[in-house]
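Late entry, flavin-adenine dinucleotide complex.
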Amino acid sequence: MSEPQPKPKKPRGIARLIAGACIACGARCQAVCPVNCVEMTDSGEPVIDTAKCIGCQKCVKICPASALEMFFTPEEQKILEQLAASAIPVEEEVDPEAAALALKLAEYRGVWVFVEQTEGEPAKVSWELLGVGADLAAKLGVELCALVIGESVEHLCSESFAYGAAKTYLLDAPVYKYYRTEAYVEGCCHLIEKYKPEIILMGATGMGRDLAGAIATRVATGLTADCTGLAIDEKRNLMQTRPAFGGNIMATIMCDKFRPQMSTVRPNVMPMPERREGAKGIIIRDPFTVTEDSVLTKVIEIIRDSHSKGTVDITGAEFIISGGRGMMAPENFTLLQELADELGGVVGASRSAVDAGWMPGDRQVGQTGKTVRPKIYIACGISGAIQHLVGMQDSDIVIAINRDSSAPIFEVATYGIVGDLFQVVPAITKRIRKMKQARR
Ligand SMILES: Cc1cc2nc3c(=O)[nH]c(=O)nc-3n(C[C@H](O)[C@H](O)[C@H](O)COP(=O)(O)OP(=O)(O)OC[C@H]3O[C@@H](n4cnc5c(N)ncnc54)[C@H](O)[C@@H]3O)c2cc1C
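Prediction complete; structure with ligand written out below:
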C-alpha cells in the first residue's frame, strides 16, 4: 500500500508594482497592509519590501488601478501549475483574524427600522423604510423589526405590522414622551446590545440624523447618511448607495467589519409599501427606562413655528410644477402657480431659482433641498443637473419644458417639450381650463 501523499501548500507569492500603472490614489495599498511592508515614494507610488510581504493580496485587491499584481518565483509557478493540473485538494490556510470577525458579525441578525413619531404621530418615512427593509430582510432570511420609542405609542406597533414588520421592540415610558437625544440613545443602545440587529434604518429627518449619529458613535459602527439605494451583497453586507462629491458620482459604501450597519434615508426616496390592514406581529415590551434626572435636556414648552404657517410642504404634493433659472424673474413664477392651481399642485424650484431669491428655500428640490416623488413633476426652465435630478427622478411622470433640446433633464423625462416655457406653460394652463369647463 502506498503512503498517502502530503497535501501541497499553495504558494502565496509576493505583491509587486506594475511599472507605470500606479495612479497615486493616496496610499490605499499602504493603509491596508497588515505587516507594514509598503512605503510610499514622494510621487505617491508604493515600494514593497519583498522580504516582509506575506502574500495576503490585500494591497492588490484594494488598488483602484490594478497597478499591483502577485509575483511567483518559477518554482512557485511550477507548484501552482502542478496543483492546477492534478486537482489535488489544496490546504487553504484559515485566517484566524477573518474567522474571528465572521463569528462576531454572525451574532447580529435582523433588520430594524426606527419608527419616528412626534406626540404619537408617525413620520411617513418610517413606513417607506419598512418597505425597503422588507426586501433586505427577505434577502438575508431574517425578521423585519420595528423600533418604537415614546409614551403611549403602542398603536404604532400595529401600524408597523400593517407596513410589514414581523416584530416590534417597544420602549414606552414617560421619559420618552418628547424626543431627547440622551434618553433615546440610551434606550436604543440598550436594545441594540441586547438583541443585536445587523441593520438599522432611520429617516434622514432632523430626529433621525441626530439619533443615528449619536448611536453609531456609541456602539462604534459605521453610518451612511442620505442613502438613495440599499441592497445586500453575497457576504450579507449592506450596500449603501448615495451621491458623493457634490452629487457627481454615486458611491456604494459598505460597513463590513462592524455591526449593526446603519443608514439614514430621506423621506420620499423609497416607495411606500402596501398597507396590510389587521396584520399581526409580536410586540417585545422592554422595561428599560432612563431616570428623568439623568437626562439633562428638559422640555419646558413646545412653541410651534409661526413661520411654518402658510408654508407649503412640497414633499407630500402629488403635482409639482418647478421652475429654474429659465424663469428669468420672480414674478414669472405666477405662470407656474396658475398651472399648479389648475392641477391642485404646488410650485417647486431649482437651487438656482432659490439662490436668486425668486423662491423660498423650502421649495427647493434636489440634493440640498427636498426629495419629492409626486405623480407628475413638471420641470420648467431647469437644465437637469445631477443635484436636481436626485431629488425628483423617482416621480411617476416627469414632464420637461426646456428650449434646449440637449438639456440633461430630457434624459429623465417621460415627456419632453422643446420650446419656450413662456409660451408652453400658459398654453397648457389654458388647455386644462378649457377641458375643465367642458366637463362642467
Ligand atoms: C453640492 C451641491 C448641491 C446642490 N444642490 C442642488 C439642489 O438641491 N437642487 C438644485 O436644483 N440644484 C442643486 N445644485 C445646483 C446644480 O448643480 C445646478 O446648478 C442647478 O440645479 C441649476 O439650476 P437650473 O437648472 O435652474 O439652472 P440652469 O442650469 O442655468 O438651467 C436653466 C435652464 O433653463 C433653460 N431655459 C432658459 N430659458 C428658457 C425658456 N424661456 N424656456 C425654456 N427653457 C429655458 C435653459 O435651456 C437651461 O437648460 C447643487 C450644486 C452643488 C454643487
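The pocket of flavin-adenine dinucleotide is lined by residues 246-247, 324-326, 350-353, 364-369, 381-383, 385, 387-388, 391, 401-404, 407, 420-422 (CB under 6 Å). Will revisit in the morning.
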